[in-house]
Amino acid sequence: MDLLQPHEVTCPHCWERITVTLDLSEPAQSYIEDCPVCCKAIAVSYASHDGQVDDLSADAAD
Ligand SMILES: [Zn+2]
After folding, report:
1. How far is residue 55 from each of residues 29, 36, 47, measured CA to CA in Å?
2. What is the pTM of this model?
3. How far does the centroid of ligand 1 lie from the alpha carbon of residue 31, in Å?
4. Residue 7 CA: distances (Å) to CA of 3, 38, 49, 53
5. Number of structural domains in the chain
6. If you measure from the C-alpha of residue 8 to the centroid of ligand 1, how many angstroms do you get, rounded to a whole number?
């Protein structure tokens, strides 16, 4: 199973759809990623279960 999976989220700053790569080897993670469109910080958090993403959110981090 490939534990690095691309998923789409909506940037909370510019509302563009962007793709983030999630590492599903961890049951839950949160990290800061810069939006590739507007370069503002996004707090990405998610939980995973059996290689499926359960709860993915992207919030403004500043
Ligand atoms: Zn953005």
Report:
1. 10, 22, 5
2. 0.88
3. 16
4. 12, 18, 15, 9
5. 1
6. 13
